[in-house]
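This section describes the prediction task in plain terms. A model, or a person checking by hand, is given the sequence of a single protein chain and must write out its three-dimensional structure as a string of tokens. No templates, partner chains or ligands are provided. The sample shown here is typical of the held-out split.
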Amino acid sequence: MPQPKSLLSRLAAFDRKEGLLQAGDRVLAAVSGGADSVCLAHHLSRLAGKGRITVAIAHFHHGLRGRDADRDAAFVRRLAGRLGAPFILERLPVSATAERDRRSLEDAGRHLRYRALERIARRRNANKIATGHHMDDQAETLLLHLLRGTKAKGLAGIPACRPLGRGPGEVVRPLLALDRSEILRYCRAYGLRFRSDRSNRSDRFTRNWIRREILPRLELKNPRIREHLCALAADVQRLTRTASI
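The expected answer:
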């Protein structure tokens, strides 16, 4: 099987630059079943196979998409089995939390996922939580912050690494080195199947509208817009770190 050597080199270089994963790390990976999280799970399992780290896979059932959500959970369970990783499934009361706290479904889901990830990490003695955010997510986040109004901190976007909210450890995003097209190329190279979430095609979520309508229009004017937005986020993150020293 031909390996995407350039992509592996990019991932390794980004890991070294950001200091994301060290030998002996115990990593809990958040895996939805989509292409990005499947790529993340496979990448981490490769490192585990070399004896660098250990990996467990967590999947969250939001109770919003009926049988599709059940199929996602079953898919990720099978993926974890093939990768030889422990599998943890949790059901999250997203709809009830959104209504109670007057949050959007998207915001409530994100809030509950991170709380659950930190809880599971403490239970499993994991010192790293890994998520599948990539360059397209970074670009979308900056545009979303600009649309809603933001201070300079909002232009820092998604950090490659941040401390856990509770307890020791860090959240790491190894795939910020790649864009979505490269993640799909990685999946093709390794014959990885993944699930598609139909809610990602709904423009009732602002992020989806940015992904489907705004970024493609900006690309017509500048094909490197994603790269430039990610570079801006990296610059702001460096400035923020320097200012805090």
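For orientation: The chain has one domain: 5-244.
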